[in-house]
UniProtKB/TrEMBL annotation:
The organism's taxonomic lineage, starting at the top: Eukaryota, Metazoa, Chordata, Craniata, Vertebrata
TM regions (residue ranges): 12-29, 41-63
Role summary: May be required for cellular fusion during osteoclastogenesis.
Protein name per the record: T-cell leukemia translocation-altered gene protein homolog
GO annotation, biological process: osteoclast fusion
Biased composition (Polar residues): 81-93
């Protein structure tokens, strides 16, 4: 049968977990430094993604109200302002 958890093993658990995470982190850094071309490619792609998202955010800040105005015009005729107010040709049952 398994032994119950003792207070001493519970106190050592955070140190063990942090040690394991530290080992994984150092291994990741060693691999990261060994793969120079992959790192460069990753950094370029990350930079491209950040710049793209930033430019989308800036463009929406400048033109967002114009784009929203194209889709939501005020008026009586539906969402786009072009739906006739009269009845349709389809029967309602």
């Amino acid at each position: 049968m398994a032994e119950p958890w003792s207070g001493q093993s519970l106190q050592a658990l955070p140190a063990t977990v942090l040690g394991a995470l530290g080992a994984l982190g150092s291994e990741f850094l060693r691999e990261w430094e060994a793969q120079d071309m992959r790192v460069t490619l990753f950094k370029l792609l990350l930079l491209w993604l950040v710049l793209s998202l930033l430019s989308i955010q800036l463009a929406w800040g400048f033109y967002g109200s114009t784009v929203t105005g194209l889709y939501h015009r005020p008026g009586l005729g539906g969402q786009n302002g072009s739906t006739p107010d009269g009845s349709t040709h389809f029967p309602s049952w």
